[in-house]
Each structure stands twice: as structure tokens, then as C-alpha cells.
UniProtKB/TrEMBL annotation:
GO terms for molecular function: oxidoreductase activity, acting on the aldehyde or oxo group of donors, NAD or NADP as acceptor. Belongs to the aldehyde dehydrogenase family. It holds the Pfam family Aldedh. Residues 64-524 form the Aldehyde dehydrogenase domain. This is Aldehyde dehydrogenase domain-containing protein. Keywords: Membrane, Oxidoreductase, Transmembrane, Transmembrane helix. The chain crosses the membrane at residues 23-42. The active site is at E301. It comes from the Eukaryota. InterPro entries: Ald_DH/histidinol_DH, Ald_DH_C, Ald_DH_CS_GLU, Ald_DH_N, Aldehyde_DH_dom.
């Protein structure tokens, strides 16, 4: 009876939660929002007000190098010319950043939080301008720009404001018994100037995500943007400089550097204190090689060929919605895009048909001309690569279910139709090479052993998503996938959880950004050992030069007494230790 009664209560509670999930969610969000608002309104510290500074002109805007024609990839129209920075001009940027950092490195966390909150205010106030700048630079839709540039940037800043100081707080460390008179701690100091090289897929968020973490840790930031998404830097850099100068800080603290590969290499070799590179494995290897000449440390976030695993126990409509987002968000131009979708054989045919039907029903077009599900790709060469990989896959035996070609309705833009390929196998080229475009490749699996082998069957190891009603199975399989990030029953959600570090393994790179690890990665770790009681500890005769012959025996017995196994052995060593100390008392003085 008691068991039946307990099961009834559990079932009623479960039914209540299911029926009222939306309401409960809204209440929780409301409570959290009130808590955040209270903290913002009533927990402010007094910060000394600095006089405003002139915005001035960024050294990064004085380039005289190769001209970059900023072309809108959605319509092929030029938006203007921006000059690249030559290597000596990159050095000028570095010197200005070093001056700014010397002052900024002395600021308090309260002052840094204030600037980051100003950045959030800036995003809110200029949201429409920033969204449209991103749309024109990349060809992405308004939704993609709003979600991928504004929301994610504000969340990154919010996280740093609320939790950044905790990650960089001095940590007390354990001192062994032999050093009991000492105390130990680990401190996080600014490195200096961080060199950051970002790709073209999120030209605004990628800047603020890395730069905000760098300056919160007390550094300056030099951000080299892609030549394929340069035009938005004009607006964004002006807004950043305005925030800094209005608060009385040197606006050269964050500089946005335009240029080609020469500019990026110059930044790596310029003398910056650390480099964060986000991009392709090939370029990442060149960055690492250039940085090795001066032993400049690097963080590399490189490509991915992420698996999305769909088991046969899922609700199909739910799974399809997640997979569609995983494959086609930002038109597949994501390092964590789900480039390989593994579907269990029991639901494979139905899954493929419904995926193709959905994708064939969606609309693609110029974002500035109306509402579309998909915009254009950003880089012309990437369209060529996707077209080649899809064509090769079909020749190798894949079945085309949707898309598969450039969009004939928009010949002047970089349009490739969202594509679905079925019957993809691990022997095909597209299984191995990163597409970085709107392609869903669907692979059939029947058992866990083959699934794990195939999922691990590339040189990449960035992320992995698993969809299943059996959480234990999903976690078991996930633990066997070589990846830096594992998401169960969702896609990409971990990026909005800024407390989780972001990064991969294998040729997807090493090091992390986001989370405490990301902030500490932009810091110089200093191990500090000092006197615990403020009294200088005398050096015992035991370890002074010249070394007394009896010292060896005493140290030997101390080792046995502390580290040897067995209580009898420890007691024997303790007696021997005591005996030798009694014979040589002066050695402990």
C-alpha cells in the first residue's frame, strides 16, 4: 500500500509539473530577473568618476596597406573601402594598447564591471544598427544577427559582470606539514596585450566576446577581423571607443584591426603577450608556428565536424527541430555545426523524408529585402567548397534529398541552397572534410560499436550532441566520443551557459575561452609563498651549507616517517628520527 501510495504521489506531481511547465518556467525566470535587478540597483559600489576623454581616431583606422573592398555577400554590392594595416602599423597599434593597458591594469573589478554594463547598454541602444551592420557584412538574416550577435554578446557580458571576479580571485593553496610556518596562494595578474584573430561568421559577437574577457582580466585587446566581414568594424569600434572615453579610459584599450593574412601574421609576431585564434586548422597551424618563434602562448579554437546522434527512442518532431537548428543555424557557418547526423536504422527512412520535406519548404533570399528563413553565405570561396563537397558526395553514392546547388534566383549573391544528403558513409570525402555551410549529411547506424567508431572517425573533436530518451545511454556513449563539449538532448545550448569553457581536442585545437578557464587563460598565474605569521622563518642548520654529514640520515628517516606505508614502519622511522635529532640537536636550530 505504501509503495502504491508513493507511486501515486509521484505520478500526480509529475503530471502537475508537465501540465504547468510553462507557468513554472515563467515564475522561475521572474524570480531570477528580480534578483538580478535587485543586485544591479542596490549593490553598486562608489566608483571615482573620471573626466571624459576625446574619442580620437583609432590607430587601427590609419592603415595604408592593401585595400579591402567590403562587399555585401547577399547582393554583391560594395559598401566601401577599408585599408589593411601593414606590419609596422600593427606595431603602432600595439604601442598604443600597451599605454592603455598600463593604466587599465590598475582598475578595480567594480570599474571593469561598470564598463561591461555600459557595453550592454550600448548593445541595447544601438541594437538595430548593429544587427543591420552584421547582416550587410555576412548576409545572415535579421533573426540570426539578433540571436547570434546581440543576445549572445549581452549574455557574455552579463556573465562576466556577475561571475568574472570570482574566477580571478586569489586562491589559497594547501601547505604541507613540513612547511607549516608558510602560507601559499595563487594570484591572477593581467598578461598585458592579447592578440585576437577572429573569423567572419559572427563579426560583432566574436570581437566583444574575446575582448570583454581580455579587458576584464586587466588586459588590452587587439582584434584582427576577417577581410570578409570588415565593414561592421567601422561602427562597432566607434561605439566601443565612445563607451571607454565617456568613462575616462583610454579608448585604445580595444582596437579592431582590418587586414589580410599579412596583418594577422604581423599581429602574432608583434610582441603581444598571448594570442587567441579562431579559424581553420590550416591557418591555426601557421599561427602556432609564427608564435613559436617568440614563445608567445596561443589558444586555438579551430574547425569541427561535430556528430549529432539520434537514437530510435526519440519523439521525431522534437528531434528534427533540434537537428535542423544544429545543421542550418547561421546557414551552417558555425564551428560547432552538426556536420554529421547519425540516425538509428529503425527511424532512418522516416527521419530523412521529414527532414527533406521541412528544408524544401523553407525560403532563402536577401535579408534586407524581406523575411526569409535563410540568407546568403559570407565568403565566395566557401560557396565553391560546399558546392564541390556536395557534388563529390553525390558522385561517391550519397542521395540528394534537398538543395544541392547554388540558388538560381539570386545569382549576384553567395547563395547555396540548404542541402540534405542521405546514405552518406564514412568513406566519403564529405564525411571527413569540414563543409562550414548549409549541408545536413545523414549517416545510418545500427549498433553502438559502429556508431562510436564513426563518430570518432575524423581528425576533429570540437563538440557532440546526442538525442535520446535514455539519459544514461546518452552519457555512456558521450563519454566515449573524443570531444571537448558534449550536449545531451539539445544543440549549441552550452554556449549560452557562459560558465562552461568552450574548446575542443585533436585538430579542433586546444585551450579554452568562456568560463573561469577562459578568464584565467587571459591571466598570468603567480604562485606566492610567504610567512604565515609575519615572522621570518630561520633556515635550520640541517639544510645550510656546508652540509653536515648527519643531515642525510635525519632527512632519510623523515621521508620514511611521512611517506612509508604501514603504521609499524612509520613508528620505527619516527623513533629513528627522534634518536638522530637528539644526537644532533643543533641541526634543527
Amino acid at each position: 500500500m505504501e509503495n502504491g501510495h508513493s507511486e501515486c504521489i509521484f505520478k500526480n506531481a509529475k503530471d502537475f509539473l508537465t501540465a504547468n511547465y510553462a507557468l513554472i518556467y515563467q515564475v522561475v525566470v521572474a524570480i531570477l530577473s528580480i534578483a538580478v535587478l535587485y543586485k544591479v540597483l542596490f549593490s553598486r559600489k562608489n566608483i571615482t568618476k573620471r573626466p571624459k576623454r576625446e574619442i580620437g581616431i583609432s590607430p587601427a583606422s590609419n592603415g595604408t596597406g592593401q585595400k579591402i573592398d567590403c562587399v555585401n555577400p547577399a547582393n554583391g554590392k560594395s559598401m566601401g573601402i577599408v585599408n589593411s594595416l601593414k606590419p609596422d602599423e600593427v606595431k603602432t597599434c600595439l604601442k598604443a594598447a600597451q599605454v592603455a593597458q598600463a593604466e587599465w591594469g590598475q582598475t578595480t573589478f567594480d570599474e571593469r564591471r561598470q564598463i561591461l554594463q555600459d557595453f550592454i547598454d550600448m548593445f541595447i541602444k544601438h541594437e538595430n544598427e548593429l544587427v543591420e551592420a552584421s547582416m550587410r557584412d555576412t548576409g545572415k538574416t535579421r533573426f540570426e544577427a539578433m540571436f547570434g550577435e546581440i543576445l549572445t554578446s549581452c549574455e557574455k557580458l552579463r556573465y562576466l559582470i556577475q561571475h568574472g571576479e570570482k574566477a580571478l580571485k586569489t586562491e589559497e593553496r594547501i601547505v604541507p606539514m613540513l612547511m607549516g610556518s608558510k602560507s601559499a596562494r595563487l594570484e591572477y595578474h593581467p598578461l598585458g596585450v592579447i592578440g585576437i584573430i577572429i573569423p567572419w561568421n559572427y563579426p560583432i559577437h566574436s570581437i566583444i566576446s574575446a575582448a570583454a574577457a581580455a579587458i576584464f582580466a586587466g588586459n588590452a585587446a587587439l582584434v584582427k577581423v576577417s577581410e570578409w566581414s570588415t565593414h561592421s568594424k567601422i561602427l562597432f569600434e566607434h561605439l566601443l571607443r565612445k563607451v571607454l572615453s565617456n568613462r575616462g579610459y583610454d579608448p585604445n584599450l580595444i582596437q579592431i584591426l582590418p587586414g589580410m593574412g599579412e596583418t594577422g601574421e604581423a599581429l602574432v609576431r608583434s610582441g603581444v603577450d598571448k594570442v587567441l585564434f579562431i579559424g581553420s586548422p590550416g591557418t591555426g597551424k601557421r599561427v602556432m608556428k609564427a608564435a613559436s618563434d617568440s614563445l608567445t602562448p596561443v589558444i586555438l579554437e579551430l574547425g569541427g565536424k561535430d556528430p549529432m546522434i539520434v537514437f530510435d527512442d526519440v519523439e521525431l518532431d522534437w528531434a528534427l527541430a533540434i537537428v535542423q537548428r544544429g545543421c542550418f543555424i547561421n546557414l551552417g557557418q558555425n564551428c560547432i555545426s552538426s556536420e554529421r547526423v547519425f540516425v538509428h536504422e529503425k527511424i532512418y527512412d522516416q527521419f530523412c523524408k521529414q527532414m527533406a520535406d521541412k528544408i524544401n519548404s523553407l525560403k532563402q533570399g536577401p535579408p534586407e529585402e524581406g523575411h526569409f528563413d535563410f540568407g546568403s553565405m559570407t565568403m565566395p570561396a566557401q560557396v565553391d567548397k560546399v558546392e564541390h563537397l556536395v557534388g563529390t558526395a553525390i558522385k561517391e553514392g550519397a542521395t540528394l534529398l534537398a538543395g544541392g546547388k547554388r540558388n538560381p534566383a539570386y545569382p549576384k549573391g553567395n547563395y547555396f541552397l540548404p542541402t540534405v544528403l542521405a546514405n552518406v558513409t564514412e568513406k566519403m570525402t564529405i564525411f571527413q572534410e569540414e563543409a562550414f555551410g548549409p549541408v545536413c549529411t545523414i549517416v545510418k547506424f545500427s549498433n553502438e560499436q559502429d556508431l562510436i567508431r564513426m563518430a570518432n572517425g575524423t581528425v576533429f573533436g570540437l563538440g557532440c550532441s546526442i538525442l535520446s530518451s535514455d539519459i544514461k545511454r546518452a552519457e555512456r556513449i558521450g563519454s566515449k566520443i573524443s570531444t571537448g563539449m558534449l550536449t545531451i538532448n539539445d544543440y549549441g545550448a552550452s554556449y549560452l551557459i557562459q560558465d562552461l569553457p568552450f574548446g575542443g581536442c585533436k585538430e579542433s585545437g586546444f585551450g579554452r575561452f568562456n568560463g573561469p578557464e577562459g578568464l584565467r587563460g587571459f591571466s598570468r598565474e603567480v604562485s606566492v609563498l610567504t610567512d604565515r605569521f609575519g615572522i621570518k622563518t630561520p633556515v635550520p642548520r640541517l639544510i645550510r651549507y656546508p652540509i653536515d654529514p648527519a643531515s642525510v640520515g635525519i632527512i632519510r628517516q623523515a621521508i620514511y616517517m611521512i611517506y612509508q606505508r604501514g603504521i609499524v614502519n612509520k613508528l620505527r622511522a619516527a623513533l629513528n628520527f627522534t634518536s638522530q635529532v637528539i644526537k644532533n640537536p643543533k641541526l634543527l636550530l
